[in-house]
Design goal:
Largest sheet: 6 strands, mixed
Strand order of the largest sheet: 13-12-16-17-19-18
Oligomer: single chain
Radius of gyration: 31 Å
Helix content: 25-40%
Structural class: alpha+beta
Length: 462
C-alpha cells in the first residue's frame, strides 16, 4: 500500500476539497471546480487532511453519480476513484473545467476561489456564459442605439489613424468600414462602437484623484467620454499631477525631463484599465496618485484562465474580455500586440532602480500599482551609482587575490595569448597549479577564454 502522501494532497486548495461524507456540499464543490479550472473532492477526509474513511456499498458510487447528475445543469459526471489509505477507504471525485459554463447546482452558480466556493454574481454568470460561447460583451448590440448615435468625426479620425498605422486598410464608406470591423450590423451598433464613437457620454467613468493619504484627497476628477478621449484625458491629468525632475547638462546646455514614473508604463496601465475592464459592472475605473505610488483599479478580475502568477512571466497567454475594443486599439497602434502590456511595463521601469510593479486580484476587480523608494532624478547619477557598485565588487575580488593570482593577471594583460605552460615557466609553478588558479580567476569573472585552447586568447573582464 502506498503512503498517504503519495495519493492524498497535503491540504485543501484551489483544486482540492476534503469532505468527511457525501452530501450536497460535495456537489457544490464539483460545480465550483467545473466553473473554474477543475479539481477533485476527496470524500472520507476531514478539513485537517485526516483520513476518516467511508463505508461503501455495492451501489454507493453509482447512487452518488446519479445524484450529482440530477442536481446539476448541465449534468456533471465526475471521474471516480476508490483508494485505501491507512486501512480506510476514501473516494476521489474529480472534474475538469467544463467547456460550457456556467454549471448550476439547484439553480445556483458557484466558482472556486483559492480554497473555498463562492456564489457567483449575476455579472459573473453572464461573463462565464459569454466566455464559453466565445463571445464578448462589446460585440453585443448597444441597447436602443443606432448608427445615428455615433459621431462621424470621431469615426473618421479613427479610420485615419488605422490607415496611417498600416495594420488594416479602411478605404470604403463609413458604414462599410464599420461593418468590416464588426462594429455595426446594419443600422444597429455594438457596445464597442458606442464606447469608441458615441456622440454623448457613455456612462462609464474614470474616477481619478491626487491623494496625500487614503483618506486625504487633494484633488479629484471624474472623466467620461469615448475611450480614445478618456485615454488622453487620463494621461493629461496624471502628467499634470506627478513630479518631474530636470537634468541640465552639456555645452551648450540642454534640459531633460525625468518623470516620476515612466510615461509609457502609465499609458499601458491606463489602456489596460479601460480595454480589459468588465463593462457589466457598475463600478468605475479608479486611479489614485500618492506621493510615491500610483494605483489603477478596474472592475472585473482576470479573464479566462489567466492567473496572477501567469502575469509575472513574459510568456503568458492573454485572454481578451472585450475583443472588439482590443482590436480597435491594436489597429490604431495604441497597443502593440495582445497580452504584451505587462511585459512592456516591466521593461519601462528597468531604468528606475527602486521602482516596483505590483498587481493582484481583489474583491470586484484587479489592482495594479507602481511604487518607488527613491525618485529617479538623473540618468547619469543612476549609471554612476551602478558603476560604483560594480567597481566596488570588482575591487573586493581583486583585493582577495593571492600574489600568484595577481601575477597571472599581470602576465595576461601583457600577453593575452600566453599559454598555461608559459605561465608555469615564468612563475616557477606547476601547470596543474596554474590550471587551478586560472579556474579560480574565471569563476571570479576576472578573466575569460576567447576561442580555442590552441588559437584563442585570454581577456580580462573587469
Amino acid at each position: 500500500m502506498k503512503r498517504q502522501n503519495d495519493l492524498l494532497p497535503a491540504r485543501e486548495s484551489e483544486f482540492v476539497e476534503f469532505k468527511t461524507s457525501f452530501n450536497d456540499e460535495v456537489i457544490v464543490s464539483l460545480v465550483a471546480f467545473a466553473n473554474s479550472k477543475g479539481g477533485a473532492v476527496y470524500v472520507g477526509v476531514d478539513n485537517n487532511s485526516v483520513v476518516k474513511g467511508i463505508i461503501l456499498g455495492d451501489e454507493t458510487i453509482q447512487q452518488w453519480l446519479n445524484e450529482i447528475k440530477n442536481k446539476t445543469q448541465p449534468g456533471l459526471i465526475p471521474e471516480t476513484k476508490v483508494m485505501s489509505l491507512e486501512g480506510r477507504r476514501i473516494v476521489s471525485l474529480s472534474i475538469n473545467e467544463f467547456p460550457v459554463k456556467p454549471i448550476a447546482f439547484k439553480g445556483r452558480y458557484f466558482r472556486r476561489i483559492r480554497n473555498s466556493n463562492h456564489l457567483m454574481t449575476a455579472i459573473e454568470i453572464a461573463g462565464a456564459s459569454m466566455q464559453s460561447l466565445q463571445l464578448s460583451w462589446d460585440s453585443y448590440p448597444a441597447n436602443n442605439k443606432t448608427i445615428n448615435d455615433l459621431d462621424p468625426s470621431k469615426i473618421e479620425k479613427f479610420f485615419e489613424k488605422v490607415n496611417e498605422k498600416g495594420r488594416f486598410s479602411l478605404q470604403a464608406s463609413l458604414a462599410e468600414n464599420l461593418e468590416k470591423l464588426k462594429l455595426i450590423n446594419g443600422s444597429r451598433i455594438t457596445n464597442a462602437a458606442w464606447l469608441l464613437f458615441a456622440k454623448e457620454t457613455t456612462g462609464y467613468n474614470v474616477h481619478i484623484g491626487r491623494f496625500k493619504t487614503p483618506s486625504m484627497i487633494i484633488d479629484d476628477k471624474m472623466l467620461n467620454g469615448t475611450l480614445f478621449e478618456v485615454v488622453e484625458d487620463t494621461m493629461r491629468y496624471i502628467i499634470a499631477q506627478i513630479k518631474v525632475a530636470f537634468e541640465i547638462k552639456g555645452m551648450p546646455t540642454s534640459r531633460t525631463e525625468i518623470f516620476e514614473y515612466p510615461v509609457p508604463a502609465l499609458r499601458e496601465m491606463t489602456l489596460n484599465s479601460l480595454i480589459h475592464r468588465d463593462y457589466l459592472s457598475p463600478v468605475d475605473v479608479q486611479i489614485k496618485i500618492y506621493d510615491n505610488r500610483i494605483t489603477f483599479f478596474n472592475p472585473g478580475g482576470l479573464f479566462g484562465n489567466l492567473t496572477v502568477e501567469d502575469l509575472k512571466r513574459d510568456n503568458y497567454q492573454a485572454y481578451a474580455r472585450n475583443k472588439l475594443l482590443a482590436e480597435a486599439f491594436y489597429l490604431t497602434g495604441d497597443i502593440e500586440k495582445y497580452g504584451s502590456g505587462f511585459i512592456r511595463i516591466r521593461k519601462e521601469i528597468e531604468s528606475y532602480p527602486t521602482m516596483r510593479f505590483d498587481f493582484n486580484e481583489i474583491p470586484n476587480g484587479f489592482l495594479v500599482e507602481l511604487n518607488y523608494k527613491d525618485q529617479k532624478i538623473s540618468s547619469e547619477r543612476i549609471n554612476e551609482r551602478i558603476n560604483e557598485r560594480i567597481n566596488e565588487r570588482i575591487n573586493e575580488r581583486i583585493n582577495a587575490l593571492t600574489k600568484n593570482e595577481r601575477s597571472i593577471l599581470e602576465a595576461i594583460e601583457k600577453n593575452p595569448r600566453i599559454t598555461q605552460a608559459q605561465l608555469a615557466e615564468n612563475l616557477n609553478l606547476t601547470e596543474q597549479y596554474i590550471r587551478k588558479l586560472i579556474k579560480k580567476l574565471k569563476n571570479a569573472a576576472l578573466i575569460q577564454r576567447i576561442g580555442s585552447n590552441k588559437t584563442g586568447f585570454w581577456e580580462i573582464t573587469y
